[in-house]
Amino acid sequence: MEDLSPLQAFRRVCNLRMLAGVYYFCLLYAISRTLTWYGESDAGLSEVLFDLVRFSRQCLLTGLSLLLMVALAEALLAGRRWQLPAALAVQATAVGLGAALGTWLRYLAATLDNPGLKLKPAWLLSTVALWALLGGMAYALLLIGRAQRAGRHELARLFREREALKTQQTEAQLSALNAQIEPHFLFNTLANVKRLYETRPERGRDMLVALIAYLRAALPGMRRHESTLAEELELVRHYLAILQMRMGERLTFDIAVPPELLEARLPTLVLPTLVENAIKHGLSPLPEGGRIEIRAAHAAGGLTVEVADNGQGFGTASGGAGVGLANTRARLAARFGDAAALELEAAQPHGVVARVRLPAEALA
User: Fold this and answer.
1) Which residues form the domain of 99?
2) CA 263, 267, 268, 273: dihedral to nearest 10 degrees?
3) In this predicted model, what pLDDT tens digit does every residue of 76-117 receive, in sequence order?
4) Same domain for 295 and 236
5) Assessment of whether the complete model's pTM goes beyond 0.85
6) Are residues 184 and 109 in the same domain?
7) Burial of 152 (C-beta count, 10 Å sphere; 0-12/13-18/19+)
8) Which of 28, 34, 262, 304 has the greatest number of C-beta atoms within 10 Å?
């Protein structure tokens, strides 16, 4: 329930819009009654118009009295925690008093035109009852409309809260998955540096310098939920350059990405994870090494990003069940839902193609 001051509650009922509504209702009521009388009498047009004005004035006196009493009742109820029976009693009393006051004012106004007019109890009771019924119905419609508006506002608020919670849940999920992927990615790289230091210290120092340069570029973005394809490719170039220092001619790579796709958005470390997986499971086990090809292209309104290798294929590889690939799938789903996917397929004559499908949203 809204917390309004008595003055605000009064103005919410007694305002220009409500006054206009009362006026038009009373005018239509007076017109309908006047037309009924006109069809049953021989009165002239001037007399009919005079009766219309007089009866409209009488109806307005009752309608405005009801509006005033309802506004006072709302002001009395505002800011207090009334029990339902007590609130209904206040509202019913306001309607009754408004109908009675309006009827009495109508009688006083009628005596101005006809000083000898006597008050008839039957007329008094029937008029009070009629306007109490009309006022009660109008008051009920007012309360129902207000409850419906409050319900819509509450639904809108709950919807906004749910969307905010979903956003927070997605961000927390992405942060948790990043926390799993980053050590997996970095520890493997450091292990490569360690092995190279044990065999060729000079190359190990050069590789360590290159790794430091890579980390300086990578670490600021590792806590972000998203990066661009251009940023991902920059990390991949650094990573592959480091591995080339260890593997020498056993590793070659090529990157073919149209410039217009470089600003595409995707979760951070998706591309480096796929490249690392291709080298670890595809190329490293082979004495002759192999080649990595990274491609991107428009597809079905979105885009695809592929990491292809000509390594040993699915024979002894994880087949897509590794931690890095599982987390990559989860992060794509958290960011794009079912519109994004990670697919693995066999390359010809051998090797694996890891394909990331992204929706048009990634290009926005």
Assistant:
1) 6-119
2) -110
3) 888 777 788 888 899 999 999 999 999 998 888 888 877 878
4) yes
5) no
6) no
7) exposed
8) 34
